[in-house]
Specification:
26% strand; 6-stranded mixed β-sheet; 3 domains; Rossmann fold; 570 residues; alpha/beta
């Protein structure tokens, strides 16, 4: 790419880039010396244009974006190149100047809501602070409007709640509301919809498109979702190991990738064309042999249903004043069963109750009504010793690795802890097990001595998955377990889960908003809406012949389902 500033002619007037990054280098100081995280990166964003940066975790895409808004960590610095905003080099701008630019000129939607929302402030107050700091009206109606535009229902009531009262997706929408509240000229969106269900994702992205069209807002979109990049971005920039390896118009690049890494990204992206049964056939396993091949547990020798959920209901008491409370039914009379050695997916919008079901199955929440039968035993009757054994047999992978990993534990201790807790092996065997688990989730063994704050979001999620696998459980509850992963690692993890299931007869309850992943891994699908189970069926039945309008809306909202197919198929 040339270092000369590109100029577009519009109606006879020259239009310069809003943001131009030239030969950018970013260096981090570590105890082992300087590490070059980004090298010779370059990209250009014109006014009103959306540019997506894609790449695996640790490729440098978020680091590049943070440099553009002056939010690199204390040990990071721009060591080369330029960041030009409207022609002004801000790569070494003062903190005072960056504060002037943040808000009205550059907005930011960060990836992790739990680290970026203050837990002791109400959501509405956090929106108000942003509006006031930028001299905008900040009354209750203004706050409610901002939240409603970001897809939060009942915005006035939600404004008076705290972050812990929101689901993961709702917290992410609150961050999006704050980022969009001042209508910035450039919005840096770092995985802004990774925690959102597809219908709300479409609403948010439609809003971003509207801003681009009406206000001339430019968007720098950081994402691992290639379907989303193809559907929403004008241009795509591919980063690999800190360098830009390919860039160009989105559909042209994704349908005809030139660089080997881009080709791997495209081929690894899940789509509606992928099916779990096809994966099995590619491996030479017939559909009725998946559970009984190799070392698999023979399902017919055991009870066919390992989990039975009967009339499950959960009612929360929500405070609506100093004393007054109101009932909120998060899960309403839900019943389904999970067959041993299979994968059942629960899908639905944020707030539909799917994660609440998972927490009750894990015995982390007590049902208001109904029962959970695990391997023929009602889990509500378990005593302390039996519950300890239950914990080994049923393991979780939570949605938010930032909240589920102890920041004071290094990665070795994090993964080893359940082995020590259950008195499994000696020190040497536990270290060997940890190394094997890191290999399984595609992390280098050197990661053992690092801490969570030294890892990217996707890397942290892989650590959480390794920890869940440590006890060789029979059932794994996956709550958005691959939502934070780039497509290459996501494909590796899904293949790993499928392989473990085929060999060991594992059972998965898979909570997700990613319907492409559902099609790839699930045998049965349960669709939830507002706490109720509205549709249940095999994966093929639900995808090919959905019965409810709500299910059809979820399917229609999937980004890039056909765009990612080869031109001769699309």
């Amino acid at each position: 790419m040339s270092n000369s500033t590109p100029i577009k002619e519009v109606g006879g007037d020259a239009v310069k880039p809003l943001l131009e990054i030239r030969d950018l280098a970013i260096t981090f100081a570590t105890s082992n010396g300087d590490v070059n995280a980004v090298r010779n990166a370059h990209l250009t964003i014109m006014p009103g244009e959306t540019v997506a940066i894609v790449g695996e975790s640790g490729s440098g895409k978020s680091t590049t974006a943070l440099a553009a808004i002056g939010l690199l960590p204390g040990n990071g610095r721009v060591s080369g190149g330029q960041i030009l905003l409207d022609g002004e080099d801000i790569s070494h701008a003062s903190e005072r100047r960056m504060i002037e630019l943040r808000g009205n000129t550059i907005g930011m939607v960060p990836q992790d809501p739990m680290s970026n929302l203050n837990p002791v402030w109400k959501i509405g107050f956090q929106v108000k602070e942003t509006l006031k700091a930028n001299g905008l009206p900040s009354g209750p109606d203004d706050i409610a409007k901002v939240l409603a535009e970001a897809g939060l229902p009942d915005a006035k009531r939600r404004a008076n709640q705290y972050p812990h009262e929101f689901s993961g997706g709702m917290r992410q929408r609150a961050l999006i509301a704050i980022g969009l509240s001042c209508q910035p000229r450039l919005l840096i969106a770092d995985e802004p919809t990774s925690a959102l269900d597809v219908t709300v994702q479409r609403q948010i992205l439609d809003h971003l498109d509207k801003m681009t069209t009406e206000l001339g807002t430019s968007v720098l979109l950081i994402t691992h979702d290639l379907g989303l990049a193809a559907e929403r971005a004008d241009k795509v920039v591919v980063m690999y190991r800190g360098e830009v390896v390919e860039a160009g118009p989105s559909l042209e690049l994704l349908r005809n990738p030139q660089h080997p890494y881009t080709q791997r990204l495209v081929s690894s992206a899940p789509s509606l064309a992928s099916r779990r049964i096809q994966v099995a056939k590619e491996q030479g396993i017939e559909s009725d042999e998946v559970l009984n091949s190799g070392e698999a547990i023979v399902a017919k020798e055991l009870p066919s249903e390992v989990l039975q959920i009967k009339n499950l209901t959960k009612v929360f008491k929500l405070r609506s004043g100093l004393v007054k409370t109101t009932d909120f039914t998060a899960v309403d009379d839900v019943s389904f069963s999970v067959k041993r050695g299979t994968t059942t997916a629960i899908v639905g919008e944020s707030g539909s109750g799917k994660s609440t079901v998972a927490q009750m199955v894990l015995n982390l929440l007590e049902p208001t009504e109904g029962s959970i039968i695990f391997d023929g035993v009602d889990t509500s009757t378990l005593n302390a010793k039996e519950l300890f054994k239950f914990r080994r047999r049923v393991q979780p992978i939570f949605q938010d690795p930032y909240g589920s990993l102890d920041p004071m534990y290094n990665i070795f201790r994090t993964i080893e802890e359940p082995l020590r807790t259950h008195n499994i092996g000696d020190k040497a065997s536990r270290e060997k097990k940890v190394r094997e688990l890191l290999d399984q989730v595609a992390l280098p063994q050197s990661t053992m001595r690092r801490f969570p704050n030294e890892l990217s979001g996707g890397q942290r999620q892989r650590v959480a998955i390794a920890r869940a696998l440590a006890l060789d459980p029979e059932v794994i509850i996956c709550d958005e377990a691959v939502s934070a992963l780039d497509v290459l690692v996501q494909a590796q993890v899904l293949n790993l889960l499928a392989d473990l299931q085929a060999r060991l007869g594992l059972t998965y309850l898979f909570i997700t908003h990613d319907l492409a992943v559902v099609r790839q891994i699930a045998d049965e699908v349960c669709v939830m809406e507002k706490g109720k189970l509205v549709e249940v069926g095999t994966t093929d039945e639900v995808f090919e012949n959905p019965q409810r309008d709500y299910t059809k809306a979820l399917l229609n909202a999937i980004p890039g389902a056909t765009l990612m197919l080869p031109p001769e198929v699309a």
